[in-house]
Each structure stands twice: as structure tokens, then as C-alpha cells.
From TrEMBL:
PPR repeats lie at residues 193-227, 306-340, 341-375, 380-414, 428-462, 464-498, 510-544, 545-579, 580-614, 615-649, 650-684, 708-742. Belongs to the PPR family. P subfamily. Keywords: Repeat. InterPro entries: PPR_rpt. The keyword Metal-binding does not apply. It comes from the Eukaryota. This is Pentatricopeptide repeat-containing protein. It holds the Pfam family PPR_1. GO terms for molecular function: mRNA binding. It comes from Carya illinoinensis (Pecan).
Amino acid sequence: MSVPLSSSKQSTVFLLRLCLLKPQTPAIPYYPLHRHLSTEPNPPPQPPPLDEESLINEAVQLFQALEDGNSSSTQLHQLLFTSSSPSSPGIFRQITRRLASSSQALEFFDYIRSNSPSQELTSLTFPFEAIFELARREPDPQNKLLELYRTSKERNIPLTVNGATLLVRCLGRAERVDEALAVVDDLDPSLKNTHFYNVVVAVLFRSGRFVEALNMLDEMLQPGADCPPNDITGHVVFAALSSREWFGRSISDEEIVGLVSKLLEHGVFPDTFKLMQLITKLCRNKKIGRAWDVLHDVMKAGGTLEAASCNALLMGLGRDGDFERMNTLMTEMKAMDIQPNVVTFGILINHMCKSRRVDEALEVFEKMKGMRSENKCMPNTVTYNCLIDRFCKAGEIERAQELFDQMNKERVFEKMIGGNDGFSVEPNVITYNTLIDGLCKVGRQEEGLTLLHQMRSENKCMPDTVTYNCLIDGFCKAGKIERAQELFDQMNKERVFPNVITLTTLVGGDAVTFSILINAFCNANNIDKAMELFNQMSKDGCSPGAIVFYRLISGLSKAGRMDDASSVVSMLKEAGFCLDIVRYNVLIGGFCRKNKLDKAYEMLKEMEQAGVKSDIVTYNTLISYLSKAGNFATAHRVMRNMIKEGLVPTVVTYRVLIRAYCLNGKIEEAMKIFRDMSSSSKVPPDNNEVELALSLMDEMKVEGVRPNVTTYNAMFKGLREKNFLEKAFDLMDRMVEEACNPDYITMDVLTEWLPAVGETGKLKKFVNGYEVSVSTS
């Protein structure tokens, strides 16, 4: 049984134990002294030194217990600051990282700073860096990091480069770029490295601060720079250069090419995807020459090139029609052993077809087919579709059908050999739609319908809205409205809904199928059926677009159903659309034909308020109505208004006036207007309405109005411009018949024209007063 020590002796033992934990000098033999004073026969065994991981775990537990008030700091102090403890700034950082929060970590940091025998500030930067890491993962990280940053400055704790990097990245994501740049300026320049620069440049590019980003890049690209660019720099820069948006800041072609060139000098190359993106962007901006330079700079610098990057440039060259450089690039690809893929050949064939170089496209196609033995780049469905589309657009349907038959043979062959290794030549819905559309355009709708049945019966691909639209449009244009209606009904049965936006008009987004049918029924004067379809659109949940409204308004107006037309106009406005000038003219014409002049004037007033300017059709419509009603004074006032607005009267303008005067028995006034029309200053002889003028002369003949030589001269000038010889001969005969003598202008026109076309004999007969159409016999 041990004897209890007095309090003084216990104090002595405690002090001696402290001495044991922290010996002063090896010269003092402390353990014999302990042996004399201790009541124990032997000294207590020393615990084995803790390994680093155990020390970290125990330190975390002790500090958390201290925070909870369940422990004193003595044991933690002994653990962290004795000479036997493997403590270091790195250990402190590891302990800090394992604490529960950044606020607790900051308290631990204060504990270290207050108790550490070493007061060197550099030893405290690493645990402070760990506090940044904790704060980054907490709510509201930007504000917490900024507060910690201010704390570090107040306590004069320098930032580590990792802490600064973390802070800049976090602030950049929060678009607090100015604060991030302040951190950049505060960091010791000797600590900055390439990784730090990369983060800052990425932040600047993302926030649209391109001038500052390019300036920082310039520092990195200087010869002998301490922080030269690396592959990550290249990733950041090439991603920025190839992005579509530059926030309004334009970067010149020289800047792009120059930057790429400098990066290449430092051995920094874009990866295949980034290079493809960059070249695609330049080509879309019509900078084909710069795209060419970039690709060839990479090529000369020894960078790795793949078909994808070359394909991007080939696409741009193809859109530009630069087949010479396309061939050069293909030759270079072969020299560099860059294997063209199916996309490469597809681009060549597609652009050759678009440029109508079909024979060259077929050569490439045959070359691809010759690669079957090598199992490379065989034509696929897209390749065939390009050629079929070109032949259909050129009206060469037989050649398109030959290719279609080849596709089916290839498909059968693939099944026989057990697969196609990715080179699919299965006809798809685009193949069928292209061929069906081509057949319909040349009037072979029934063959197109056969293809539709083939699609369904062989179950290779199902018809879609485009398929039906092509056929419905074809039958409508051929006047076979009933067949078109049958196809429309079949669409609904097969649940191929016409309101699927597969192919829509740009204005209003209305379904094309309805639009085609409504237009066809309006053209066929079947307005009731058109209205029925219009109502069905609403039932099927397909909102009519502007085009559907326009077509229906035109059809109803022409049919004289102005009340219905007005109702559709109201619906159009409720749907958020506006009338265009054509529809206003149609409505004004419809109201005039119904003798509703007040409604026509309402339309005119509405046009003016909507900012839609009247055109020649508007004025001609009003002049025609007023003239027929015998209101010539108002008709002429409208005509003067038209001229004041800068519009020149046409043959149609004069025609309606002359006809109205004739019908009202005012032949002299009609003749005066006819002569006025014949004046070159009013209706030029080379206008495009010579046929209208000729028919007008026929009408004048019926009405008993005799044109004079001026009228004939104007007509001869127009006919000469069009080289309408037979019409001229008719007029010459009419002059002879009506004893209207030619003048010098007549002879100038005819003597310059007729001998030049081998009709001198006709001219001689006319001069001698004979009809030129009478045979010599």
C-alpha cells in the first residue's frame, strides 16, 4: 500500500514531471533525482511518440473538447509544442483542415499564434490557407473569403499562392472581378506561378475583361517569362477564342492568329476539338483566309492534326466555293497521313452538289465505294442523300431513283454479310422525303404516293409531317384537291399530326399542312372547305399563324364574303398579328366590289395609323372603283395624290380610266388619256406591261376610240424592246387600215428594227401603204 504524499511533495512531483516532459540540458541527471523523491520504486514508462496521423486526430479532439469547455489547454499545449512533437506548419495546416468550420479554424489559428514558441509569420500562412479551403465549402463563400482576406491583412499574415488562387477563382465565379484583381495585385510577385496566371486569365475571359486577359497573357508569352504558358493556358485561351460570344468586344483576325502563333512558339497546341471550334468560328465569320492560316500554323509547328479540324476548314472553303484550296488541303492531308473520314468525303460531295459539279461529286462517291475492300469511308446514308437531293433539284429524277435503288441493294448486301461496321446505307425518312418531293415537283405525285406506301409496308421508317406535306402540296398544285384531302385525313388516322412543327413557315409558326390545304381550297374557290379546315386547326390545338390568316382573308375577299373576311381580320389581330399591304389591298378591293366605300376608307385610315404606306395597287383599286362609278373628279384627285406620293401611273391605271370613260360614252376624254399614256415621259416604251397595253388597244378598238400616230409610236418602241414582231406587223396593218400615216419617229423605229431582223420587204410594203400581212401572191 502506497503512502499519500503531502501537498508540498505533490507539487514537487508535478514540477519534476514537467521537467521530464521538457528537459533543460542533458548535463543535469534528472532521473536519479526523481528516483530519490518519488514514492514509486521505478519511474513511469514514457508513452511512445505519436505518429503524424495520430497526432493530428488527437489534436483535433483536444481542441474541440477545449472549445466545448470540457478540457484545459495544458494537454493540447504539451501535444503541439513539446520538442518531441512532430509539429510543423504542415501539421498545423492538416489539423486546421479537419476542423468543423472556418470560424473554429480561425480560433485554432489564434491559439497557435498565441502559444507557438516561434512567431515567424511565414509559418502561419499554411494554416490560414486551410481556413480559406474550409470557407470555400460553406454558405456565402465569397463574403466569408473576403472577410478572411481582410483578417489576414489586419494580422499581417501573407497569402500563399494557393490561398490567393482559391480566392480569385471563387470571386471570379461570383463576378466580383475587381475584388479578385485586388488580390492579384497584393500577392507577392515571387509567389506567382503559371497555375495562378491561368486561373486569373480564365476569370478575366469569362467575365468579358478581354483587354486585361490579353495583357496578362502577353506577360506570360514574353521571352524568358517566369510564368510561361502551359497546356492549361492553351485550353483556357483556345476555349475563349472559339466561343461564340465576346460580350460585344470584337477581336481582330490579326489578334487571333497572332495569339495562336505565340502559343505555338511556346509549344502550346490546341486540342482537336478546340482547333475545330476555332476554325469553325472563323469560317462562320467569313474569315476563311484566317482559318486557313491558323490550321497551317499548327501544321508547321508540328502540332497533331486530325480529320475533324481539316473538315471544319473544308466546310468553310466549300461554302466559299473555293474548290482549288479544298483540293490542296486534301493533298496535304494525304501527305501528312491524316486519314479522311466519311464526314470529309461527305463535305466534298455536298458542296460539289450545291455548286452543280455533280460529275466531280460522283467521282468522289465512286472513290468511296472503291474503299469497301479496305473497310474505310464507304458512302453512308448522308452521302447518298446529298446526291439524291441534287438530282431531284435538277429534275433528274431517274438518276435519283438509281441511287435509291443502289441504297436498297447495299442494305440487302449488308444483311447478307452480317453488319456494316458503322457504314449504314439504310434509306431514312430524309431519303424518302427528298425523293417524294422531287417526284411531286415534276408532276409524278402517284409515284410519290407509292413511295409513301413502301415506307409504311416495309416498316423501315415511318412517314412524318414533311412526307405528307410534300404529297399534299403536289396534289394541290396539280388541282387534285380531293386526293390531298384524303392524305390529310390519313395523316390524322396515323396520328401524324399536322401541328407538329417539323416544317413551319417563319412567320407565325403555323403548320404547313393546314396552310397548304387552306391555300388550295381558296384557289379552287372552295371557301367553305377552307373555313372548315381553319376551324379544325383550333380544335387540334394548332394556332394559326400569319400566313394562314392572310390566305384565308384573300380567299374570302375574292369570294365577296367580306363579313367573314372582317371576322378573320379580328381573329388575326387578337392573335397578335398585323395586316400587311397585300391584305389591306385585297380588303379594300373586296369592299369596293361590294360598293362599301365607307369600309374601304376605314381600311385606308387604319393603314395610315398602322404606318403601312399605300402602293400602286391601292391607288389603282380606288381609281378603278371611282371611275366605274362615274366619279371621275375623285378618281383624278386620287391619281394626283398618287403622283404626289412619288408613284408613277401604270398601264393598269390608264386602262381603268379609259375603259370607264368609254363605258360612260366620253370617247374624247378617253382618247386624251390614251395619248397621255403613250407619252414616253409617263409610260416608258420599255415597261414590262406591253401585253396589257396591246389588250387595251384592242378594247379601244371595240369602244370605237382611234389611236393616233403618237400612240402607235409608243407601242412600236415597246414592241421593239421585246422583239414582238408579229404584234408589230398587226399594228402596222391597223395603221394602214385606219389611214393613220406614219411620221418620222415611226420610220426611225421601224427602219432601225425590221431590216436588222430580215424583214425589209415588210417595211417596204408598209411605206407603200399595203398591209404587211398580205401574201405576195
